[in-house]
Design a protein that fits this description.
By secondary structure, the chain is α+β, with helices and mostly antiparallel strands. It is built from four helices and 14 strands. It has a five-stranded mixed sheet with strand order 1-3-11-8-13, with no helix packed on it. β9 and β10 form a beta hairpin. The chain is globular, with a radius of gyration of 18 Å.
Length: 293
Amino acid sequence: MHVFTEHQREFSLPVSMPGSSYVLAPMSYVLPDGQRPVSYTFEPPAGTPWENATYDLREVAIHDARRAEQEPQLEREGFELWDAPTSVKNFMDHEEVRSDYYQEARELALAVTGGKQAYVFDHLVRRRETRQATLSFGRRAESGLAAANGRIHNDYTEQSGQKRLGLVIRDMEVMAQIRRYCIINIWRPTHRTVLDTPLAVCDARTVRQSHLLACDVKYPNRTGEIYLSRFSPRHRWSYFAEMQPHEALIFKQYDSQFNGVSRFTPHAAFDHPHAPLDAPPRESIELRCLVVF
């Protein structure tokens, strides 16, 4: 699956808690208050807040999955790490990403899932705001790039996951033959090792439907629906320490199969308590892909 050199293993040691395989860090859970949460990805209308929900910062243990006794698997925990070098030199070049990276992602998605066909339908480059800024929903900065998203969320709900199939596959004959499909996220650093604000993922086996709360996400020309998560002591969090650009984290966002596989994998950026003060802001690319079995 993935191979790490002795140098990489040694290099991963400094940011971990001495003698431990986890760090303690605050994670941003939603506090249900009776109203439907709404978040804006662009400047909202005058008088409207960027977010209307209240969030509950809970200090949780986030385990270094590199040291897990059992390697996480996509269909069990909902995520796994692959050593998957890319030929892309400039992730800011949309044409290069859409031509080269999309093809690489399709091949990776099929290798990871064993699916028959993979359809990449969007991607997003993020850059963490300054270290002084509190992690937000990932609103866009003046640079045009989205910030790291510190709200615990899952990119699709039961409803929007079903809706996405029709948006991606327009051929009704092809649609009629589909018995199962899933949506995965492929996430990687673009050009530096991630020391600042890594991505934490929640073991899908520890997530119950009752923990998830549908939220509207406002884009300039449409409204999407995602899940936010309320706190549960059942949740088990993991991250991969010091991810490098040749590595890809693949995690499940939706699965049309109800039993026997992971379906939702909440995730969020977090402030690593042992990140060096001069660590460069994290920059990453995430890509979403629909896989048909």
